[in-house]
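Q: Convert this sequence to structure tokens.
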Amino acid sequence: MGLGRFAGGAAVTKHLAAMGARVLVTDLADQATLADSIATLQPLIDSGKIQLRLGEHRVEDFVNADCVIANPAVPKPWANRYLNAAHDQGVPITTEIQIALDLLDQSRLIAITGSAGKSTTAAMTHAGLKAAGVKSILAGNIGASVLDQLGQLTNETIIVLELSSAMLHWLDSLSPAVSLVTNCTENHTDWHGSYAHYQACKASIFANQSHGSSAVLHSSLADWKTNQGVQRFVLQQSDERPNCTLPGAHNAMNAAMADAAVQAMLTSIHHQYDPQTIEKAVRTFPGLDHRLSLCHHSNGIHFYNDSKCTVPNATLLAVDAVSQVVNRKSIHLIAGGYDKGSDLTPISQLAESIAGLYTIGATGAAIAAAASANAHDCGTLPSAMRTIMQHAAPGDAVLLSPGCASWDQFTNYEQRGEQFRQLAIKLSERTKCG
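A:
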């Protein structure tokens, strides 16, 4: 249920087909929207091992199945008509991530979640493990499925798994050797229905951890409970790693948390390591695409692509980070997008302290209206970039950090970030010529 446009849906479909299952893929989206995912399945479709039901769901498909694999992106699954029909008929319901988890040795698993910074922290953790000479894979919400990497796993492999709150909602047997939560602020109210439910899903990462495992938490979560016998590492501001390649105090904290997670895992498996080697690896991590990356520099103007930022708090962190590179009053911020139900007032309040706030997407008008006169409701990303280039000067920074999802105007955050990068290059060239 829900092939989607990311790795998980296609990966579990191929995995089940390889096991000999007859698989029906049903998705409300049409063939054109799902073209990339369908292309990876085409040989199995042509051979008849996979059938497609696109543009609709049918109750009979769900009640007559032996098992339903639900995409975690399906919101409020407990109120979903089709999943409830399957449940009432006694049909088992699971997810791609649960199927993968059942195949893993969780004594070699690092599970990472959080409202902001979880992808960067997971990637830093992966980099630290590699620097220590340990074989590892990086999978989960970051965009790669464990099921696509099963052939790479050995008894020695460490798995770094980034988990979203929706993924965690479905998991009932998660017991990682190391769990990590970067932070927790209101997010995905459209999916969960309430912040309390969202927070409970995040906290469930600790629920089944056994004696001798480890939990790494930000100091803001110090009151979160972990099981007896679980070693707790509560990181304070003083633990931030200095001189990181990625700007911002939040990335200094991400590096500290990744460092703690790597050392906890290596201690758990009795692997000899040099702490300085690990610290250097996390400090010098160059960053992930669309996560506060310097994607262009021209005419003395820095262009930062933080399209992965889909929560207001992450926008605040991004502005603080860039203000360590240029003067805060020289930052032109692009924000807005799909409405997930989050409180966007903190983004509006940024307008007074920066060069300008340029809003886009479904939430753009509301963000601009709640801001000072220093805000421009531009509607679209190209319009925002054209407006900015009329005001930007050498020494300024243009920051795409939307604080909202991309689905109102883009297929995904990657497409949004790539359009920003291309516009930065194109408009910079025009400015040069002009």
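The longest strand covers residues 293-298.
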